């Protein structure tokens, strides 16, 4: 585990960013591919070679300590030295140098006159000795000139494999992160969504314009929008008014409309046209034939909501079919805007039959008989007409 230096939260060793605060953690990670600096071998110091001095095979005491007649001693046969072949790819060997050279002595002064020669001490002929200077020289390290150190090749290191994580993807690098993380485990991007900038209101966007512009295009656009709004209001005003009136009709309580006068075609004096608006369902207007009409004048302009019709002679079942009954009526409403006509189909049964209208500013209506039930000839009975509306 690796502790975050910023917040102290423990993270896995392969995490590059802290799981809590997003701090970069790989500053102190050991470099996996950085090679170690090679050590340059120091060259072996070469001793300063003294001048070549012939070395005799036999070395005796110093000349100052010897006295006596000169004597000759047999010397060991000198074996010719065969030069050793140089190793392939190596520098020539350095000759062996004796660190304590001894000055040569004269063989004639080998014995002192005062010291008798010791026959036992005199060396006899010596056996030939093999020369070991060449192998010794070959074992010595060769001098190396200072040069540029070679860089060691980096060794391959095992790259930790990413563990498959089921979580949201980073919007920058696409790496999947655990749900509880607040920073991406690969690039350190904050995974929490930044607050979106609030959009300016429409009236502030209309006021904005390009720097250095005259604003003519903006004013033309505003003028076009205003004209379009005016045209839309004029065109949609009737529809809007109708929708408002319909809503008010549904919310309002209908009331009976006062009738000022009733006039109509000639009929039976016992059943005059005024009987259709007298408030009694057992009284009726007796129309002479199909096509006769009656006109009802209202006390003032009202919004007509409904028309209730009672056909036949009476609301009582036994008295209902005393004569022919109206089967179809043509209702013509009269208002300040003109006349509007609608047809009403009536069932051949006693009782009220309601028809919704919803017409404004009605000042009167005209009722015309267009069809009949019962006998094909004779008078036609129309019991009562009730009008309901609101101001």
Automatic annotation (TrEMBL):
Which keywords are on file for this protein? Answer: Membrane, Transmembrane, Transmembrane helix
Which superkingdom does the taxonomy of this entry point to?
Answer: Bacteria
- Which residue stretches does the UniProt record annotate as biased composition, category Pro residues? 80-104, 114-126
Where are the compositionally biased (Low complexity) regions?
Answer: 127-146
Residue ranges spanning the membrane: these are 216-239
State if Transmembrane helix is listed as a keyword.
yes
Recorded hits in InterPro entries, A to Z, give: NADase_transloc (IPR057561)
User: Region labeled Disordered — which residues?
Assistant: 33-167
Name of the protein in its database record:
Zinc ribbon domain-containing protein
